[in-house]
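Exercise: predict the structure of this protein bound to adenosine-5'-diphosphate.
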Amino acid sequence: MINDVKGIGESTKKILQKLGISTIQDLLSFYPFRYDVLKRTDLLYIEKEDKAIIDGMVESTASVYYINKKLNKMTFRMRTGNLLVTVYIFNRAFLKNKLLPGTEITVIGKYNPRNNSLTATDIRFSLLEEIPKIEPVYHTVYGISTKKIETIIGKALEQELDIEDFIPQIYKEKYHFLDKEDSIRELHKPSAIETLKRARARTKYEELFVFMMKMQYLKNNQASKIGFTRDIDKEKVNAFLKELPFTLTKDQMSSVKEIYEDLSKEKRMNRMLQGDVGSGKTIVALIAMYMNFLSGYQSALMAPTEILAVQHYKNMKKLFAGKGIQIALLTGKLKAKEKKDIYKELENGSIHMVVGTHALISEAVTYQNLGLVITDEQHRFGVRQRSTLKNKGMTPDILYMSATPIPRTYALTLYGDMDVSNIKTRPSGRKDIITKVYKEKEMKQVLEKMYEELLNGHQIYVIAPLIEESEKLDLENTDALKEKMEKAFGKKYNIGVLHGKMSNEEKESTMKAFEQNEVQILISTTVVEVGVDVANATMIVIFDAYRFGLSTLHQLRGRVGRNDLQSHCILISNYEKERLHIMEQTNDGFMVSEEDFKLRGSGDLFGQKQSGDMRFALADIKKDFSILLRAKEDSTLYLENNIEDSLTKKILENVQNLS
Ligand code: ADP
Ligand code: MG
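Solution:
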């Protein structure tokens, strides 16, 4: 236990807990986030405030000032070379009696040439041998210093370490890795830069190897999990494909085939259907639902918003008309009685397909024979549905859809446990959306562009970051925009407003009016960001565009360009022109997301999965991508040949927590 380490009392224990440290194991893997390399210096050569190691002799007796019970500051004068400097050090009052004039000391600290003072972090009475000194720096919280953490870890390292090495012997030899124990000691008490580097490389590899082992196992295990076998009437599927209003693209077709294979096999499907906005994922999902229906199972399609659920519902009604398929829409606005009826029909199996929001897998819903669950815009949900389903004792096949293109680095770790189908190209005939950034003072030009589009009989989305005026934020809002648009176009065109505060009925009827071209300009907040599909809308105007991440802008832009007409995206912003220019340069979601990642980091993308096994103590999946690839290769091979191995068993002990 952590209390076994000398110097850890109750209060320290509590503080360490704040840092996520509750066991000795945690403590040992609480690695420094940075190292300072200190050299012995002559103060004459220090020009700006800088860290240094300085030898000198105490000149005057130290005086101590008690700031409060917990904080004291000691001051004394030290001679170094020809210079007299004032040294400050906190919380070392106990050293006062050792610091007698004439004592030779070495001080480690920050020198400030402006007032000729040295704020020390450490004082040594023997000559410091290990020069240059590599000093670990730890993350801290209030109440504990990096020095204190270093001391505690130092104490822990004095004991015999009980640590498990998760790197198999063959790879240890292959890569000439340091021993695990040596490596941990090196990370906390570096002896030389070279060995520190080796220790870091080894630790990163181990973290990523363990992670990839788990991912790989989950993927295999998912596959061997018993799902349903299906007998899908291929003739009927082919006939259905011929009836579609368009021919599928090559990538759509191969995705359909992959899903067909998965559904036919006994193994449980766990597949991600990835494709940029407008690539046509919906139809692939609906075909999957049809195949599932043909084999006698129910399917559920989950959307992140009600607007999107309604749109899917209408689509299905049209597509599956006359096929004897009972389709239900389950949303929050249904009356209790209506909901109850749907629940009953789901339970007795008279509903074959159901569309809705997360309510679909909520507690109240029982299915007769749920065979397929599809999650649209998966990145919006987080990753929890699978465990919800698992808890309910169902093992339907699962298909996720995501339009957020994820750079290869992230895809590998995020979707490492899934099969992935990729739709790379958009349906043929689609033109790139022309994107242009304008300043607010160029509004006249923007209005002219809009007018041109309206004259051609097309519709326009107008996006604002806020609903109503805010005192704090000087941002465009839907209320004010409505006035503006009314003034410019109100005589000839109808203008609608859509935002999150409206009731579902209001939202739905506005959306319907826009779909049927009764409304030509739809002013909205980002509620239209995901999935909405109105082909005649060929322009989107986004106000205060700098407020949005590039990926969000790309999603918003994806609302247009949904047929073979030329579409436009207008970004209005007085700021961050450079970042927004990326949008002008590319229509490729992968490029946009790469840029977004560069600028903002992985951020919210990982959602809940990031907490938990995705957090590495040292490894960074982007910076250490080459190590990740190696770990993936090695783990795949290792798992194939050593599934019964005791090391494998240890690594996979808690793997269920991941899924
Ligand atoms: P997303 O992948 O963004 O969800 P959708 O599935 O909404 O895209 O498809 C975008 C639009 O393209 C829809 O109107 C859809 O009907 C149409 N579409 C899908 N596949 C094709 C195709 N192969 N040929 C022509 N249009 C298609
Ligand atoms: Mg979609």
